[in-house]
Amino acid sequence: MLKFTKTTASIAALFAAALTLPTASQAAVTVLGWPGGSEETALRAAVETYNAKDSVAADDKVELLFFNREGFYDKLQADMAAGSDAFDINLLATYAIGRYAPYMEPVDLGPDAVKTYGEAVLKTMQYDGKQYGVPTDLSLHFMYYRKDLIGALLADDAAKAKYAEISQKFLGKALEPKDPDSWTWEDWAATALYFSKDVNPDSPVRYGTVLQLKNLLFNMMIFQSLPRSYGADWMDAAGKVTIDSEAYRTGLELYKKLYDAGASPKDSLSYEYAETNAAFGAGQAATALQWNAAAGELTDAEKSPAIAGNVGIVAPPAGPDGRADHIHGLGLGLNKNAKNKAGAVKFLQWLSTEEAALLYARSGGSPALSPDLVAKIADERPDLVKLGEFAGAYGYVMNGGTSTNALSIYELQAKEFTGYWSGQETLDQALANTKAGMEKLLK
Amino acid sequence: MDLARRPEWKLLAIPLVGFLLLFLGFPALVNLVYSVSEVTFQTLRSPSLSGFANYAEVLADGDFWRASWFSLRFGIVTALAECLLGLGLAVFLSPLIEKRSSLMAPLMLPLMVAPAMIGLMYRLVLHEFVGPVPYYLYMWFGDSPAFLNVDNAFWTLAVVETLQWTPFAFLLFYMAYQAVPTDVRQAAAIDGAGSLQVLTTIDLPLMAPTIVIAFFVRFIDGFRVFDNVYTLTGSGAGGSTASLSIYIYQAFFKQGAIGKAVAASVLLFLASFAVLYGLNWLSSRGKE
After folding, report:
1. Nearest in space to A288 (alpha carbons), one of A204, A209, A227
2. Between 3.40.47.10, 2.30.29.30, 3.40.190.10, 3.40.50.2000, what CATH number should domain A24-139+328-396 receive?
């Protein structure tokens, strides 16, 4: 009997504890962050500092929640559509704002936000003129190149003659090697061809570049900067879809020409971020257009010993309209169904302050800070200086790039463009299908 | 009194029926409604009926038929390869495993790995610069093929699937092979049958039900493949490696075309039901 009573009491206690647990978690602010990268490390450091402050009430302490990266946005979409209140603050991305805005609330970030990030960067988290989040990280693309290889090419007359011969054969004009910071896309293409064994058996590396051609929306973001520098946009001012343009044709054909010539690894059609890092890091590629987030890994002598000390970074090459660099931000915003909205807003406002932004940057995050702020950490994070510089000078978002169906548009382009690059459909078919799909998605 | 007609039987069946209605019936009903509705993530709770437009869109979509063909081909090729290899291994290794049963454990290891992990593992194994397979191919032959380009991706994926699931077929066939009565084999041998004759006239006929079941189970698994294909190639260049499961997933989550995705899943359900019903009919005819 005694045993029965004890067991019953234990079960009752467990039941009571289970009932009280949700109350405890309701009081805290739960943040759903981007898992598994520098963003998570930086967010953890920021939260630790925030929670240690005396001014933060016990009920407003921040707890972190992370999903797996695989299918993150799909799971977030399903959770938010179901009206989940499991998190008060959720991750937000520029190209997905339109998709998540219906389940979120605009937030007032306070007066410090403009001083910390500047108007242009704050806009990456705006939809319909309203601020939906704090732009914690900015992503754009760097052109990584091998300084040793390009240096040797520029210093060798015989190599220059071979370079001119290759560019004449493949691009229809005899080009001279140039410093990467003054490359046009044709210069980059000629360099990529010159450093490819299939084109030039004397090349010291196997490939001239690493193209990310997997059927994946993020790869389309990398590609966009090429046509953009030729004047491409998704829509004109009147809202007409302009994907079937000379600019897109030029970009798509150049990629295909390089892939078909063997200037990029054979399996490039399955390459994304990690594969590109591995290929460039192995020392067998002369250039790679890759996310800025890879800078740490590719310039770290321990992580990439084969290319240590020989990696140069410039903005993407120029087209007739100058240089263009696709930017998008990751940020944190307020869930419409948040249980602790007041506490969540306090945390978001603190994240917009100089103190928090510098701490986040020092902990590995990639915020695009205002020039005054970035100068304070230039020695520790020189890549952030380039990030801010490139974003300010070349950053762009396509017209329609933050619309409700922006993600689906990238998906559509990924499918059609990879269909063309892999030789399964013609350029005309790919562009016609993309145009028809985009007209439907941008209605 | 017939067992099924007894009142206590009905009482006992209530939890099961309730469970099925709740966890299968309700989602199936919602799916049917969504499949004839115009619905997005914003209007999940208030779909508007649109007739059979979603079905018409799916049936007119070339990508749906392409994905169906991929799934069908993948299911048949991998099920055949797994069953043939599994059968060969079961017969060949049977004497060895009888004496060293512990050998069974390492042979079963691939089954313990999640298919998504297998996909990720092969992304590494086949990578031209860090993978061991291209490394040795370059070392021995001076070149390595593009395992995951449009021409080769299907076969690479089929090999990866076969390597993981052959142990499953092997396990079933080994058990069936062991169950063949030894005295029947001995009697056949005394009558002068050679080992090939014993295999084809005694072992295989007796193992036939297991072979059919194994093929069918592996075909279903291959047909609905998702995880390892998705992690290894995604839907492939131009959608070349999109299985039917990937097609439905992408329509639902990536395109937000919920009605279209659900209509495709209902069509898949109907096709599966027709195949199962057909097989059941064939099986009952065989018994007669």
Report:
1. A209
2. 3.40.190.10
Contact B146 A279 (CB under 8 A): no
CA distance B146 to chain A (A): 5
- The structural domains of chain B, with segments of one domain joined by +, span 52-287
What confidence score (pLDDT) does residue A13 get? 46
As a whole number of angstroms, the distance between CA B195 and CA A236 comes to 76
The reply to whether residue A411 touches residue B147, judged by beta carbons under 8 angstroms, is no
3-state DSSP assignment of residue B148: coil
A37 and A293 in contact (C-beta within 8 Å)? Answer: yes
Distances in Å between the alpha carbon of A304 and those of A196, A297, A363, A367? 21, 7, 21, 24
Q: Determine the residue among A84, A267, A438 to mutate to test chain B binding: the one whose Cβ has the most chain B Cβ atoms within 10 Å.
A: A267
Task: Tell me how close the Cα of A168 comes to any Cα of chain B, in angstroms.
Answer: 28
A414 to chain B: nearest residue by CA? B238
Tens-place pLDDT, residues A359-411: 999 998 999 898 889 999 998 888 888 888 898 889 888 998 888 888 889 99
CB A228 within 8 A of CB A394: no
ipTM confidence: 0.83
Beta strands in A75-225 (DSSP E): 89-93, 104-105, 126-127, 130-131, 133-139, 141-146
Instruction: Supply B262's token pair.
Output: 């659900």
Query: Side chain identity at B24, as an amino acid letter?
Result: L
* B78 bridge partner residues: none
Residue with structure tokens 């509705």? B37
Going by the DSSP 8-state scheme, the letter that residue B22 receives in this structure is I
Superfamily of domain A141-326+405-441, CATH level 4: Periplasmic binding protein-like II (3.40.190.10)
The answer to whether B156 faces chain A, any CB pair under 8 Å, is: no
| Nearest CA distance, A415 vs chain B (angstrom) | 5
Cβ within 8 Å, pair A405-B239: no
**β-pair partners for A318:** A184, A323
* Residue B233 sits at the chain A interface (C-beta within 8 Å): yes
- Preferred mutation among A100, A215, A259 to probe B, highest tally of B CBs within 10 A: A215
Q: Of B42, B129, B153, which is closest to A278 when you measure between CB atoms?
A: B129
Overall residue count recorded for chain B in this entry: 288
**Mapping DSSP to helix (H, G, I), strand (E, B) and coil, where does residue A323 land?**
strand
Nearest-CA neighbor of A387 among A317, A328, A318?
A: A328
Distances (CA, A) of B136 to A149, B128, B133: 27, 10, 6
**Dist. CA A345–CA B249, nearest whole Å:** 35
Residue of A266, A441, A442 for testing the chain B interface, max B β-carbons within 10 Å: A266
- The continuous run of DSSP H or E covering A210 comes out as none
Domain covering B52-287 in this structure, CATH number: 1.10.3720.10
H runs (alpha helix) in A140-216: 147-154, 157-171, 185-194
How big is chain B by its Cα radius of gyration, in Å?
24
The whole-angstrom distance between residue A144's C-alpha and the CA centroid of its chain comes to 16
State the pLDDT at residue A26: 46
User: If you measure CA to CA, which chain B residue comes closest to A424?
Assistant: B238
Cite the residue boundaries of each domain of chain A with CATH code 3.40.190.10.
24-139+328-396, 141-326+405-441
- Reduce the DSSP state of residue B145 to 3 states and report it: coil
Chain B residue numbers with beta carbons less than 8 Å from the beta carbon of A278 are: 127, 129-130
**In this complex, which of B41, B148, B234 lies closest to A267 when CB atoms are compared?**
B148
The 10s digit of each residue's pLDDT in B30-68 is 889 999 998 888 788 888 888 899 999 999 999 999 999
